TrEMBL record:
Signal peptide, first to last residue: none
Top-rank lineage group of the source organism: Bacteria
Regions crossing the membrane: 20-49, 61-82, 108-131, 138-157, 169-186, 198-216, 259-281, 319-342, 354-384, 396-426, 472-492
GTP-binding among keywords: no
Span of domain DUF112: 20-439
Protein name per Swiss-Prot or TrEMBL: Tripartite tricarboxylate transporter permease
Keyword vocabulary terms for this entry: Membrane, Transmembrane, Transmembrane helix
Length: 504
């Protein structure tokens, strides 16, 4: 009851004209930021921190939080329409979303992304409101050992993200791991795979890598096709909204993605990016239409988009309740809190409860504003595909180049874009899937950091993998996931063989 009273007070403050204006401005800016490759919520928040200096703390935090979850949906627009992820968590959406757009189903893809984002965001904020204390205790069960196994499990499952050869999927994973190791060792400070170039000391930016692998090969391929590319895009008939079957196929992925994204978002240091990849892997593994994945399965858009938006709400729980950032973006928000003289943690709900509940209430309002803002514009966004191919794909290349340059304002970033663009094109020509490389690059720092911390804590021993109950459970699930399908296939073949023998 106290929670509802506090939330009601938060709504009273959040609905004041100035607070409401900053909430709407935040989600609008977030959507634009998500659409523009190379910007992302971290860069946008960093740019606007000086602007928020002169604001009231509640208004500044409402604005910056709105940018955070607004960008989660904005990134899905370009990922779906032109296979150019505007934000890290939208990279996996480019797989099925773009395939749906090429089949004349761009409106359905954007609609399921918008609705899934709204539902997941709403459920995540409800969870943030009522479940914070319980879920924070659950997150504290995870130590370095459990995080390492979680990342290793994600890499193991990455080979199932695409159809075709598992060997080629593993090659893609190793490419992502190799790129992720470029730069200075974060413990020793020694350079790794930098080839003597100081410009590689900071490693390869994820956004450049993702844009190079997804957008560059697609643009080259379509421009090389000449007039055929235009016909290929526009010959699928009138683009329609979601059908009854689309709603039925999206309902459970929305629900599963919301729960999975919220739980993963709570884990400090993980954030919504991993949630979207894990949701895609889960949807593909349990789907009865596995052959559609890679060719425009709506579940591959609905689940990940719900997961990455739920992950935003989940990431706010350790930030508000423990003062621990759940992602890189919330780490920046933590700095903003301290800039205003606030200290997130258990005491903030006592000392600054009005501010926190106003921010939470503004998230409800912003989530509604996002669905109202974006659903009517779906038809406008899809009209991008009606542009002549020369203009469309040339514009994509220009947009990607500007985005890559804007990351560090360096020509070296453009060189990296070109190099990895060629690598991505060769990978596509060789039938090597791109998505596992993206996931591997995301997981490298988390995997390495937690592996080293596990060994440091245990004195170089691997025994914590077997002595900690949660880690042992994860290992057993990994073994079951590997051995289970093999045993099941053997059993099916044996039953079929016995049936043939009995008939004979």
């Amino acid at each position: 009851m106290d929670t509802l009273i506090d939330l009601g007070g938060g709504f009273a403050s959040a609905l004041e004209p100035l607070s409401l204006a900053f909430a709407l401005l935040g989600v609008l800016l977030g959507t634009v930021v998500g659409v523009l490759p190379g910007i992302g919520p971290i860069s946008a928040i960093a740019i606007l921190i000086p602007v928020s200096f002169g604001m009231e703390p509640v208004h500044g935090l409402i604005l910056l939080c709105g940018i955070y979850y607004g960008s989660m949906y904005g990134g899905s627009i370009t990922a779906t329409l032109i296979k150019t992820p505007g934000e890290v968590a939208s990279a996996v959406t480019a797989i099925e979303g773009y395939a749906m757009a090429r089949r004349g189903r761009g409106k359905a893809a954007l609609a399921t992304a918008a609705i899934g984002s709204f539902l997941a965001g709403t459920l995540a904020i409800i969870g943030l409101t009522f479940l914070s204390p319980v879920l924070v205790k659950l997150a504290n069960v995870f130590g370095a050992t459990e995080y390492f196994l979680l990342m290793a499990t994600a890499l193991l499952l990455a080979s199932t993200m695409s159809s075709g050869s598992r060997a080629k999927a593993l090659i893609s994973i190793f490419i992502g791991l190799a790129v992720g190791l470029i730069g200075l060792d974060f413990q020793t400070g020694l350079p790794r795979q930098t080839f003597g170039m100081s410009l590689l000391s900071d490693g390869v930016d994820f956004t450049i890598f993702a844009m190079a692998l997804f957008a560059i090969p697609e643009a080259i391929r379509n421009l090389a096709l000449g007039r055929g590319a235009k016909e290929e895009i526009q010959s699928f008939g009138e683009d329609k909204w979601m059908t009854k079957q689309d709603w039925q196929r999206s309902a459970m992925p929305w629900a599963r993605g919301s729960v999975l994204g919220f739980i993963i978002g709570i884990l400090p240091g993980v954030g919504p990016s991993l949630a979207s990849f894990m949701s895609y892997i889960m949807e593909k593994r349990i789907s009865k239409r596995k052959d559609e994945f890679g060719h425009g399965a709506i579940e591959g858009v609905a689940g990940p988009e719900a997961a990455n938006n739920a992950g935003v709400g989940g990431a706010m729980i350790p930030l508000f309740s423990l003062g621990i950032p759940g992602s890189a973006t919330t780490a920046l928000l933590l700095f903003v809190f301290t800039m205003y003289g606030l200290q997130p943690g258990p005491l903030i709900f006592r000392d600054d409860s009005g501010l926190i509940w106003t921010i939470i209430a503004s998230m409800y309002i912003g989530n509604v504003a996002l669905i109202i803002l974006n659903l009517p514009l779906v038809g406008v966004f899809v009209k991008l595909l009606k542009m002549p191919k020369e203009i469309l794909f040339s514009s994509i290349l220009v947009l990607v180049v500007i985005g890559a340059y804007a990351i560090e304002f360096s020509l070296f970033g453009l060189m990296m874009l070109g190099i990895f663009g060629v690598i991505g094109y060769l990978m596509e020509k060789g039938g090597i899937p791109l998505a596992p490389s993206i996931l591997a690059l995301v997981l490298v720092p988390l995997l390495e950091d937690n592996f080293r911390r596990m060994l440091q804590i245990s004195g170089g021993s691997f025994m914590p993998l077997l002595t900690r109950p949660v880690s042992l459970s994860i290992i057993l699930l990994m073994v079951l996931g590997i051995v289970g399908p093999i045993i099941f296939r053997w059993w099916v073949r044996r039953r079929a063989l016995l049936a043939d023998v009995s008939v004979a």
